[in-house]
Amino acid sequence: MKTADIRSAFLDYFRAKDHAIVPSSSLVPVNDPTLLFTNSGMVQFKNVFLGSEKLPHARVADVQRCLRAGGKHNDLDSVGYTARHHTFFEMLGNWSFGDYFKRDAIRYAWELLTGVLKLPSEKLWVTVYHTDNEAFDIWAKEIGVSAERIVRIGDNKGAPYASDNFWQMADTGPCGPCSEIFYDHGPEVAGGPPGSPDEDGDRYIEIWNLVFMQFDRAPDGTLSPLPAPCVDTGMGLERLAAVLQHVHSNYEIDLFQHLIRVASELTQTPDLADKSLRVIADHIRACSFLIVDGVLPSNEGRGYVLRRIIRRALRHGWMLGVRGDFFWKMVQPLVEEMGAAYPDLATKQALVEDALRTEERRFGETLENGMRLFEAVAAKVQKTISGADAFRLYDTYGFPIDLTADIARERGLTVDMDGFDQAMKEQQERSREGGAFEAKGQMPADLASQLAATVFLGYETLSSRASKVVG
Ligand code: ATP
Ligand code: MG
Ligand code: MG
Ligand code: MG
């Protein structure tokens, strides 16, 4: 089943269950300045859950384009390292706004996966929130999932948001337990079942998250039942496609293979499993859709996230030996794959290509010299690249700090982030004293702090998931 057909099959299923099909919203959240990017399907329905907006339909389904490359959700540092994470991905979702609840949400999910799409039920594992006996019983007694494959999961060590299997939009407001469905890709892949110490591997891959919004959390932390409980679900299209196409990695599905083949030709890289090709294929989607949604490369805000992603892709091309521009040429194959589902992508193709080509040529002027400096620095350090060197790469050669950290990671090196922040602060003070408050290459403080969180999370991910790589 091709990825495009899976998209339609999902919508057809929920249409037949009386769901109104709504379009994907933009990657740029429409009226939520607190959020950098749309990172899940529920973003466009936030006000519906909060009660300040009412939709004409109580049942809705869609395919939402999502980006997790900054802010609270950031998977940028996992791209190329796991089989299942992208920056840009499509989330299949169905919602009940005060209509059906746990029982039907679970039944629909199970029927679609095992009845319509014919996944073998013995390869599916489910999790429930540890105290959610209602969901446990539906899975065990009504659906008939064997109890060994139903895992009770608690809170994620007090993490304030989106703790595992308990979801909340914010410190207060609608929240509730989740139930997630995992697919077992088999013993050839490393990783343990959900809830086990090595659950972070790629063997048991989470495909669908069902959120049961049933409480309202008061400022003092107490939970009271919502008058009309809601359902919010999200399933990664690429992960489902991998399962249905009998491949392990998302990057092996039809859609990605097309992009990877083109990248392989453009960069003259024969090995289609090369990590850099995967990163490039991931990043062309993120970058193109950001531009379609009105973001352009810049030194601040969302535009700076876009710039960071483009520059990471270009550096991977450079690593594969490319010395001219190539990245913008990936837009055409992307339009071939996704233009039918996203007509804006096709109509804005020329704009996307122009924006990418311009950025590509601009960074191309400094990338080579920056890499030379990086090599010189890397050759003389044991473990850590100093903040001053990272700052020089940033200030003189336009290397965003996460780019430097990413290259360092490949060499088993780290970057002194505090030192970098210090160097940045000193430069800002110097330019302030000099009276010229110039924004050259600098980020506004709010974005800087969001990105700092981002980089920090990246390191956490790195140490927990890929200590081999870090050395
Ligand atoms: P994971 O634990 O694998 O990082 P998640 O719990 O962060 O996933 P959710 O926030 O529950 O993911 O999102 C709902 C679904 O979206 C997931 O079950 C998964 O199928 C998909 N998904 C999440 N993050 C990504 C990503 N970075 N790339 C591709 N698909 C994703
Ligand atoms: Mg995640
Ligand atoms: Mg998860
Ligand atoms: Mg999840």
UniProtKB/TrEMBL annotation:
Methyltransferase in keyword set: no
Record carries keyword NADP: no
GO BP term, example: alanyl-tRNA aminoacylation
Keywords of this entry: Aminoacyl-tRNA synthetase, ATP-binding, Coiled coil, Cytoplasm, Ligase, Metal-binding, Nucleotide-binding, Protein biosynthesis, RNA-binding, tRNA-binding, Zinc
Cofactor binding: number and manner: Binds 1 zinc ion per subunit.
Annotated domain remarks: Consists of three domains; the N-terminal catalytic domain, the editing domain and the C-terminal C-Ala domain. The editing domain removes incorrectly charged amino acids, while the C-Ala domain, along with tRNA(Ala), serves as a bridge to cooperatively bring together the editing and aminoacylation centers thus stimulating deacylation of misacylated tRNAs.
Annotated function: Catalyzes the attachment of alanine to tRNA(Ala) in a two-step reaction: alanine is first activated by ATP to form Ala-AMP and then transferred to the acceptor end of tRNA(Ala). Also edits incorrectly charged Ser-tRNA(Ala) and Gly-tRNA(Ala) via its editing domain.
Entry protein name: Alanine--tRNA ligase
Taxon lineage: Bacteria, Pseudomonadati, Pseudomonadota, Gammaproteobacteria, Lysobacterales
First and last residues shown, out of full length: 1 to 471 of 878
